[in-house]
Amino acid sequence: MRPLTTANPGAHAAGRSKQRDSFFDNAKYLAIVLVAMGHAWEPLRGDSRAAAALYITVYTFHMPAFIVISGYFS
């Protein structure tokens, strides 16, 4: 028989967790930065066509990036 211990039975399973993939951490960080940039450029898009083009480009890219990253982990 095994001796009874007070250790958490899930601790052994938690100790075998996978290493984080820095590529996906960096991709999520980039997508979050693009969201912040898009929100910062929003007031400028009425005055400048270049700012409007950058705003549209950022919003075209960052949402599909979130969807692909989230889909990979689901």
Please tell me about this protein's structure.
- This protein has 74 residues and is an all-alpha fold.
- It has one domain (19-73).
- The chain contains 3 helices and no strands.
- It has helices at 11-15, 22-41, 49-73.
- It starts with 10 loop residues before the first helix and ends with a helix.
- The relative contact order is 0.11.
Please write out the topology:
Blueprint: H1 11-15, H2 22-41, H3 49-73
Helix pairs in contact: 2-3
Output the keywords.
74 residues, mainly alpha, 3 helices, elongated
Choose one word for the global shape. elongated
Give the strand content. under 5%
Residue stretches low in confidence (pLDDT < 50, at least 5 long) are none
Helix-strand sequence: HHH
Overall average pLDDT = 79
* Oligomer type: single chain
Structural class from helices and strands? mainly alpha
Q: Tell me the major beta sheet.
A: none
Our Rg estimate from Cα atoms comes to 22 Å
